[in-house]
Amino acid sequence: MKILSTKCLTSAQQQRLQALGFTLVQHNFIATPPLPFALSLPYEWLIFTSQNGVQSVLAHPQWQELLSTPVLCVGVKTQQLLQSKGFKVCYATDYATDLVAYMRSDLSRYQEGRIAFFVGTHRLNTLPDFFAAEKLQVTEITVYDTVFTPITLAAPVDAILFFSPSGVQSYLSTHTAAAEQVYCIGTTTAQAATSHWASVIVATEPTVDGVLQTVATSLTP
């Protein structure tokens, strides 16, 4: 069975699939180059929704001045990266919808002072719509671009691994969905795929390793 990963995997992750007898094709279908941005300190809260946003902020000359500011984030890998650099993560969750629910449960905590929301150029509206509805003082800072970098496959594959809605869009810019079995890192990515593929499976854990585990469970005896 031939599997396409729309994100390049680590050597260990590649070996994991190959050990199960799969043929792996991989390519980064999106690139996330950092963008120049300015910080207007201080902030009362910081919000990150991806590792890409964290990496871009870490390249800013003033990033260490943010270390004393509490952080809310989406994604366990985002949380781990932030904590490894000394940030204080007060709450982390797998999905932006859960972060909205968390903030709404104690709204007064976020109504005083400015919030910095670090995003890419293809960010979703889940959090911005909430901020606008509750009239929170949020400064949205675009810190990285999302660029489609697709290739055209020479031969069809049996399964496709997607890790973001942008990855789905990039793949579809050069291919037509067919009978492939699709695996998605989370429900948001799956929503982007379900209108194109009949069979979409969401990883039991929203990480790359979670996707691979779901593949192993569903495709091996």
TrEMBL record:
SUPFAM superfamilies: HemD-like. Residues 14-212 form the Tetrapyrrole biosynthesis uroporphyrinogen III synthase domain. It comes from the Bacteria. InterPro entries: 4pyrrol_syn_uPrphyn_synt_sf, 4pyrrol_synth_uPrphyn_synth, UROS/Hem4. One of its GO terms (molecular function) is uroporphyrinogen-III synthase activity. GO terms for cellular component: cytosol. PANTHER family: UROPORPHYRINOGEN III SYNTHASE (PTHR12390), UROPORPHYRINOGEN-III SYNTHASE (PTHR12390:SF0). This is Uroporphyrinogen-III synthase. It comes from Capnocytophaga leadbetteri. The lineage of its organism: Bacteria, Pseudomonadati, Bacteroidota, Flavobacteriia, Flavobacteriales.
